[in-house]
Design goal:
The chain has 71 residues and is mainly α. The chain has one domain (10-65). The chain contains two helices and two strands, in the order H-H-E-E. It has a two-stranded antiparallel ribbon. The longest helix has 23 residues, at 22-44.
């Protein structure tokens, strides 16, 4: 417990400290794990799901999902 925040509810403490709830942190971790899995799986088997973005204006890792028509 952080001194001075004892009287606040869980949600209020998170807001004051600028933190995400445990539920949202778990969901974020699941999404990151899924992205890493897909990125690895598709770089080994035929590529094609992710493309390399060539933009200097983003702060991401540069991978973007690519739409594939399955006709």
């Amino acid at each position: 417990m952080i001194r001075g925040l004892e009287h606040l509810s869980y949600e209020e403490r998170l807001r004051v400290l600028g933190l995400l709830s445990l539920e949202k942190r778990r969901l974020q971790g699941d999404v990151i794990a899924a992205f890493r899995y897909l990125k690895e799986a598709y770089t080994k088997v035929g590529e094609g799901l992710f493309t390399r973005a060539c933009s200097d204006r983003t702060r991401s890792d540069g991978f973007k999902l690519k739409k594939v028509d399955l006709d």
